[in-house]
Structures are given as structure tokens and as C-alpha cells.
Write a structure and sequence with these properties.
Helix content is 69%, strand content 0%. The protein is built from three helices and no strands.
Length: 42
């Protein structure tokens, strides 16, 4: 629960999205997210 408290709502939402993503798409989406520049500020 501590991790959930530390992460901001947008990042929590992103991890919730990952939970519903197939393994095949996971790394592709992660790679895309990384290249977007870690824009977690909103």
C-alpha cells in the first residue's frame, strides 16, 4: 500500500492499465511510455 501512496494518481492509473494488458503489448507500451519522456506530471 505504501507504493500506491507514493505514486501519483496518473501513474497509479497507468499501472492499473498494465494489469489489464497482455504480456505481448506490455513491453511495447512500456517502451513507448519511456520514449515519451516519463511525463508523469500530467
Amino acid at each position: 500500500q505504501v507504493i500506491a501512496q507514493v505514486l501519483n494518481p496518473k501513474l497509479r492509473g497507468w499501472f492499473e492499465y498494465l494489469r489489464h494488458t497482455k504480456s505481448k503489448g506490455l513491453f511495447r507500451d512500456l517502451d513507448s511510455w519511456i520514449h515519451e519522456g516519463y511525463d508523469i506530471s500530467g
